[in-house]
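Narrative summary of target 7.
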Amino acid sequence: MAIDLFGFTIGRNGKLTSKLTNGAEAKAASFVGPDEYDGSFTVDGGGVFGQYVDFQGGFKSENDLIGRYRSMALYPEVDLAIDDITTEAIVHGQDRTILSINLDKVNMPVSIKNKMKDEFEGILRLLKFNQKAYEIFRRWYIDSKIYYHILLDESNKGKGIIELRAIDPVKIKKVRNVQKAQESVNGTQVAVVKNVQEFYLYTNLDKQSTFQTAASGLKIAPDSICYVHSGIIDSGTKRVVGYLQKAIRPLNMLRQTEDATVVYRISRAPERRIFYIDVGNLPKQKAEQYLKDIMNRYQNKLVYDASTGEIKDDRKHMNMLEDYWLPRREGGRGTEIQTLDGGQNLGEMEDVDYFLKKVYRALHVPTSRMDAENGFNMGRSSEISRDELNFFKFIDRLRMRFSELFIQLLRTQCLLKGIMKEEDWTKIVQDIHFDFQKDSYFTELKETEIMRERLEMLQSIEPYLGRFYSDDWVRKNILKQSEKDMEEIAKQMATEPVPPTEDEQ
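Modeled conformation, tokenized:
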């Protein structure tokens, strides 16, 4: 028998229950299930009770991918690229916090906004985000998903979240149970989706066993788990893949190329010698024996081990860089020694650099950062390369996806503490934004350069104000001021004294 549900669920009234709900009731009948591709394992019928969930088989590819991602992160070049991405996304500052919440577009009373800000600060403290932001983001980026178990005070659930514990992604899976029923539609039997149940199944996976039943796992309510994935869905399997997925093939080719390059350089770098040994008119067998005696005499030497006092002869070991010993009959030039030159152009690394650039491109990191000699340009905004701009846009997309972690935790806190109901949260969730701290020096330079260009354009268009362009058009299109900015500036100008003109001075 399966273990009872562990954790809690939040109903539409905001109350907590300890039983698995039947999920949201469908507003209309449908023959397809929900299209929420979040890496969950979908089962049909009466749940996973008594069914076998193949954690080593069905989920093997997913868990193996996580293991492959983690091994890729140990490669020096990939680790450097991941470090660049993480440090750009998570910027530590001495005078500012790493992350702040923006509720300017939220249509709620100021008191509610202040409570939401306080709860958000509490979430950051539970995550120890100011100290562990780098590790949390890096772990999510590498594994492509992150899980947190939400712990509550059973005696007083209104206190909200008291602790957040990270869960290894290979030990927990999201399960979606789709219940269908056969119905006749125009004389055709169609399987109509009646209900959808979602829960998480946690198991301490035994590496020795191949299959584990659902009864051996722990069923966890959806609301007691915070789950954020990469958002990248494989079109074939509908499974979640990581940001390192595209770099698997280039990295393997890079490793093979480096190994082949090392072997080639070791084998071709040293010079070899050719020994032509004069065997005269000796018979074949005696000539071969004579050649072996000469080889052993000059090739192998007795070695004295000072640590043990032993004399060793390593004749059984073959040198990987063997010289060539060739017999020569009487009538030739006699015994002769020649030298074969080593490999040429051993310093060329174009093939290695090619695959290294492919790895960086797959990770969306500008290839210019690969070369340590190319310093980052902190000059005019026009001098910033397009690769850097695309990289910054990629970082913004990562931040937006990662912010889902705080959205889920903030929802749980607001519902548990009765700050708002589920209906109210659904209305405002799209208006909640998070501001990540950016590189202050680069940001200030860029903003200053942009403002300078706008003011220069304003000076050039000033003679045409009132004739071809209006003040509102200039403020919206040249200065890029929004309606809200224009209203705030007007209020500030009304309270400030008017500066004297040149004639008044």
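Residues 9-240+404-438 form one domain.
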